[in-house]
Design a protein that fits this description.
CATH class of the largest domain: Alpha Beta
InterPro entries: P-loop_NTPase, T4SS-coupling_protein, TraG/VirD4
Number of domains: 3
Strand order of the largest sheet: 7-8-6-9-10-5-11-14-15
Largest sheet: 9 strands, mixed
Number of helices: 25
Helix content: 40-55%
Membrane topology: Multi-pass membrane protein
Strand content: 15-25%
Structural class: alpha/beta
Radius of gyration: 40 Å
GO cellular component, one term: plasma membrane
Number of strands: 15
CATH topology of the largest domain: Rossmann fold
Subcellular location: Cell membrane
Oligomer: single chain
CATH superfamily of the largest domain: P-loop containing nucleotide triphosphate hydrolases
Family: Belongs to the VirD4/TraG family.
C-alpha cells in the first residue's frame, strides 16, 4: 500500500549513487573551461589536449585550485539536493488508493469456503469405495492414490457454461457415473444432444444393473418407441374396466386432464393472439375425446370384464390410437365437423369442440383454426416420427420399480423435435408425481434425477416453475444445463426464469460471454467488506485515510476470465466456493468396451 513512498526511496538511493558521476562530470567540464581560459592566446595547446583527451590534465587544473575543487563539490551536492527536493517535496498534488482485507463485516461478510468446509456441507465420495449416496457432482480432486468427488443431494441445480467450458465433461458425466455406481441406483432422465452421454455411460450403467431406455430423435433403429397418448390410453382402460362409479369418474377426470395438457403443449405458441392457440387446442381435445368415446360405445354393451378384455385384444385399439391418426382426422374439415356435430348433446367431445365450432360458423375463421391445428400436428406426418410415436415400449412404471435410465437423444442443430421432447419430459414428471401422491409419505422411495442438457433451447415446458417448487418433497430433482441466463429468459420470460433460478439451491458457474449472466453471478456470490486506504500528498504533507467499503467477492472481470477446469459454486445458505473439475476423458473411468450396447 506504500508503493509510492517506497518508489521514492529507491529513486533517492539511485540518485545518491550518481553523485560521484555528477562530481566527475562537473570536474571535467570545469577543467575544460579552465584550460580554455588560461590557453586562449595559444589555442593550439587546448586543441592538442582535446585530441589527446588529456582528462587528467583538466582534473589537475581544478584539484590544484582550492576554489575550483570547492565549487565543483558544492555544485555536485547542490544538484543532488535539488533532485532530492524535486522527488520528495514536489508541489504536484497526488493521491494513491489501496485496499486491504479485513475481518469486519459492516458491508458484507461473504468469503470463500475452505476445503474442510466444502467437505462438511457435501458428500465426499472416494471412487474406490462402495457408497449409497446420490446427487449432483460439483467438485473433483485427485491425489496420488484416490479420486475424490463432492456431490450434493436433495437439491435442484443449475449449470452455466458456454461451449467447451466443461459442463458435460466435468459435471454431467461424473454425475451420471457416480449415481450409477451408487448402491441406491437412482433413476435418471437425461436429455442428450448428439448422444455423447449415451455413448460414454450406457454400457457402464447396463453392467451396473440399469435398464437402458433410449428415445432417439435422430434414428429409429434399435431405439425404444413412445406414444404420447399411452398414459391417456392407460387411464381410459382403467375407467372402462371398473364398475365402481366413483372410480370410473376419477379415471375419466384423469385422462381428460391429460388430454387438455397434451393438447396445449402440441400447439406452436408463435401467434400473438391466444384465440387461435386456444381454439386449435380445443379442436385437438375434441378429436381425442371423440376417438375414446367411439371406442367406449363399442364395448359398453359388454359388462363382463372377460368380454371387455377379449374385445381389447381383438380390436387392437391402441395400435390405432396415436397422434398420426389424430392429425389425419384434423386434416379433413367436412368429415371432422360432421363427426363432432352428429354426437349426442351429452357427448364430452361435442361439448368441448362446440366451443369453437359454434363460434366459428364463418368458414374463414374455422379454416384459420384448422390451419393452426394442421401446422401444430404436421410433425406427425413425418414417416420417422409417425413410426416412433405410433407404438410404445416405454413403461413409466420402470422408472419407479427398477433402476432405469432414459436417454433422450436429439440433434442440437435441429429444433423440429424440441416440442416432443418437452412433452415426453412433462408426461414422465406427471406420472412420477401422481405415483408419489399415492404413497403415504407422498414421495418416491428411490430418487429420480432429471439431467437436462440444453434445457433452455427446448420448447417451453408448461408449469415447470411449479415443478421445481414442489418436486424436492417428492424425491425428484432437476439439473438445468444452460449456456447463459438470457437463454432461459428468452424461452420462459423473466418471471418464470427467476422462479426456476431461485428454486435451484446449487448454482455452478463455469464460463459465459454474456455480460448480464456474469453480472448476475457476481452479485449472487456476494460481497465482502474491505478497508480502503487513501494516501494524499501535498508538498511536504502526507495524509492517510481509512474507510470500510463493500467489494464483490468475485469481480465480473474475474468471472469472465475463468480458465477451463475452474468454476465457482454457490449452495443456498452457504458461502461460495472455488472448485476444480477433471475432464471425463482424462479420468478414464470407463473402458472402451462399455461405450456401446444394444438398447432394450
Amino acid at each position: 500500500m506504500w508503493n509510492k513512498i517506497k518508489k521514492k526511496k529507491i529513486i533517492l538511493l539511485i540518485g545518491l549513487c550518481f553523485v560521484p558521476i555528477i562530481f566527475i562530470f562537473c570536474l571535467t567540464l570545469f577543467g575544460i573551461g579552465y584550460s580554455i581560459f588560461i590557453n586562449w592566446k595559444e589555442i593550439t595547446i587546448f586543441i592538442n589536449e582535446i585530441k589527446q583527451f588529456q582528462i587528467l590534465s583538466w582534473w589537475n587544473y581544478i584539484i590544484k585550485n582550492e576554489y575550483g575543487l570547492l565549487i565543483t563539490v558544492g555544485l555536485s551536492l547542490a544538484l543532488y539536493c535539488w533532485f532530492f527536493y524535486f522527488v520528495l517535496f514536489s508541489k504536484v498534488k497526488s493521491k494513491e488508493t489501496a485496499i486491504k482485507t479485513t475481518d469486519k463485516i459492516d458491508f458484507g461478510d461473504s468469503k470463500w469456503l475452505s476445503v474442510k468446509e466444502i467437505d462438511d456441507i457435501s458428500e465426499k465420495i472416494n471412487i474406490k469405495d462402495n457408497y449409497k449416496n446420490t446427487g449432483f457432482v460439483f467438485n473433483c480432486n485427485k491425489n496420488k492414490k484416490d479420486l475424490l468427488f463432492n456431490l450434493k443431494n436433495n437439491i435442484h441445480s443449475v449449470i452455466v457454461g458456454s461451449t467447451a467450458s466443461g459442463k458435460t465433461q466435468g459435471i454431467a458425466l461424473p454425475t451420471i457415473y457416480l449415481n450409477g455406481k451408487s448402491t441406491a441406483k437412482p433413476t435418471m432422465i437425461i436429455t442428450d444432444p448428439k448422444g455423447e452421454l449415451y455413448n460414454l455411460t450406457s454400457g457402464f450403467l447396463a453392467e451396473n444393473s440399469y435398464k437402458i431406455k433410449v428415445i432417439d430423435f435422430r434414428n429409429l433403429e434399435k431405439e425404444n418407441t413412445w406414444n404420447p397418448l399411452k398414459l391417456i390410453y392407460d387411464d381410459f382402460i382403467k375407467m372402462i374396466m371398473t364398475n365402481n362409479k366413483k372410480e370410473k369418474m376419477r379415471w375419466k377426470i384423469k385422462y381428460q386432464d391429460k388430454i387438455s395438457s397434451l393438447s396445449h403443449m402440441l400447439i406452436d405458441k408463435n401467434i400473438e393472439d391466444e384465440f387461435w392457440n386456444n381454439s386449435a387446442s380445443i379442436i385437438i381435445q375434441g378429436i381425442i375425446l371423440a376417438i375414446l368415446e367411439d371406442y367406449e360405445d363399442k364395448i359398453s354393451k359388454n359388462n363382463l370384464t372377460t368380454e371387455i378384455e377379449e374385445i381389447l385384444k381383438k380390436e387392437l385399439f391402441f395400435n390405432k390410437f396415436n397422434m398420426a391418426f389424430v392429425a389425419a382426422i384434423a386434416s379433413i374439415k367436412k368429415v371432422l365437423v360432421e363427426w363432432l356435430n352428429n354426437r349426442k348433446n351429452t357427448s364430452i367431445a361435442k361439448i368441448t369442440a362446440s366451443q369453437v365450432l359454434v363460434d366459428s360458423k364463418e368458414n374463414r375463421t374455422l379454416d384459420a383454426i384448422l390451419m393452426t391445428v394442421a401446422k401444430s400436428l404436421e410433425i406427425f406426418n413425418n414417416d420417422f416420427i409417425r413410426n416412433l410415436t405410433s407404438q410404445n415400449d416405454i413403461n413409466c412404471n420402470d422408472f419407479i420399480e427398477y433402476s432405469t435410465v432414459l436417454y433422450i437423444i436429439f440433434s442440437d442443430e435441429n429444433d423440429n423435435y424440441y416440442k416432443l421432447i418437452a412433452i415426453l419430459i412433462s408426461q414422465i414428471y406427471q406420472f412420477l408425481t401422481n405415483k408419489a401422491s399415492e404413497i403415504i409419505e407422498q414421495k418416491l422411495e428411490k430418487p429420480v434425477y432429471f439431467i437436462l442438457d440444453e434445457f433452455a433451447n427446448l420448447t417451453k415446458i408448461n408449469n415447470i416453475e411449479k415443478w421445481v417448487s414442489i418436486s424436492r418433497s417428492r424425491n425428484i430433482f432437476f439439473q438445468f444445463i444452460l449456456q447463459d441466463i438470457n437463454q432461459l429468459k428468452l424461452n420462459y420470460g423473466d418471471t418464470i426464469a427467476k422462479i426456476i433460478l431461485n428454486n435451484c439451491g446449487m448454482h455452478i458457474f463455469l464460463h459465459t460471454n454474456d455480460l448480464e449472466t456474469i453480472k448476475y453471478y457476481s452479485e449472487l456470490f456476494g460481497t465482502k467488506t474491505i478497508e480502503q486506504i487513501s494516501i494524499n500528498e501535498n508538498k511536504s504533507n502526507i495524509s492517510v485515510s481509512k474507510n470500510l467499503k463493500s467489494h464483490p467477492l468475485m469481480l465480473t472481470s474475474e468471472l469472465a476470465n475463468l480458465k477451463q477446469g475452474q468454476g465457482i459454486v454457490k449452495i443456498a445458505r452457504y458461502n461460495s466456493m472455488k472448485i476444480t473439475l477433471k475432464l471425463w476423458k482424462d479420468l478414464k473411468l470407463v473402458e472402451k468396451k462399455h461405450i456401446s450396447i444394444k438398447r432394450n
